[in-house]
Amino acid sequence: MRVVIVGASGFLGRAFAEAFAHRGADLLCTARDADKARAEALWPQTHAQWISADLAEVPPASFWTEHLRPGDVVINAAGVLRERRAGEFDAIHHLGPVQLFDACAAVGVALVIQISALGATPAAASGYYRSKGAADRHLRRCRVASAVVQPSLVWGDEGASANLFASLAVMPMLLLPGGGGQWLQPVHLHDVVAGVLALAEARPVGSRTIAFVGPEPVSLRTYLADLRRQLGYAHQAWVLPLPECLFRWGAMLAGRWKGGFLDAETAGMLLQGNAAPAADLEGWLGRAPRSHRAFIPAHGVPALRRAAWLQWMLPLLRWSVALVWIWTFIVSIGLYPRDQSLALLARVGASGLWAELLLDGAAVFDLALGIGTLALPAAWRSRVLWPLQLALIAFYTAAITWAMPEFWLHPFGPLSKNLPMCAAIGLLWAMEPPSRRRMHAAAPKPP
User: Fold this and answer.
1) Which of 67, 83, 97, 236 has its CA 20 to 30 A from that of 378?
2) Residue 305 contacts residue 232 (beta carbons within 8 Å)
């Protein structure tokens, strides 16, 4: 059996590719950047081929017919949760898959498995659901055996929704829209993969739609409480109801930051909620899917709890460091008596016009460091900003220690407080994502 996985570098596609690779299947994997995806794949590449294909560009059916073979099992796992530009949902979820499905029917593949979403219909209010639903409808009309898989929220270690809900679960107090009464039916990644493996091996005829959901519906509030319990907290969080309009407004603001889970679109889907019978998935698994109460294994609790807190604390820490530099500028440029600042500089050997320039220049430089902490991309922060901040603090500390050592004995600790400041900057530096260049250099080369 050869398995074609469209979107093999994504969260679900990567899991499917790894599972089929460990079973020895021949694989044809697609990704926007095939070379990058191949280098980052951690599963065996012995029987895998890669091609570059971006559904956002809507490759024509003729592109796919060049690569497909009769009898293939084709899995479309390509998708984006948030639009980066107008029309991206329609291209990636609808127009691109339509060309793929038409090619599958023309070539005579054995089965097409479309990874859709629970709640996807062509008439849905959400653009995400609507675009997925339009592709599902087209596939059902094609003359090819197909299975439209509609997962609910998928829990997996690297999933965006899992990261969001774990970070919410650790908080001692929560503001939830409507008090968290929305119904969900989260499903574990392992069950999604197992269900797709079962479909691929059975190669059913005809067309079917299967809800991939957990064993029972659960409210958002209860879901977070059960995750919190698994993360080792004995007491439930204090939940306060948040008006829906405020939640939507906050989600709209959150959507301005790239890479996050929440925006106006995902907020609407969360408020809508979704649930479905689990009988179909149980039939394909031959067992009940895993309950959300057993999503987190005991050995994974410390790491996930730490990651959940870092999800909140790292942005807070970054803003705190930025405000320290910005406040230092404000104090130095005018709030603190200028004559006293110049007197301190005189003690380290700076006086006259040189001291004036040094005071103003250092203040502006502090402001630049504060703005850079918030505005610079991660690569520039790692290469320039964090080492520069540490070097500047070390210089200030050394100069004051040499000229005014009594500051180490000051009850307000103006010098000793540099130690936790350096530790905070060091943590921010350590937690920056590695650059793509370093990732490619460290990645194992295919044989």
Assistant:
1) 83
2) yes
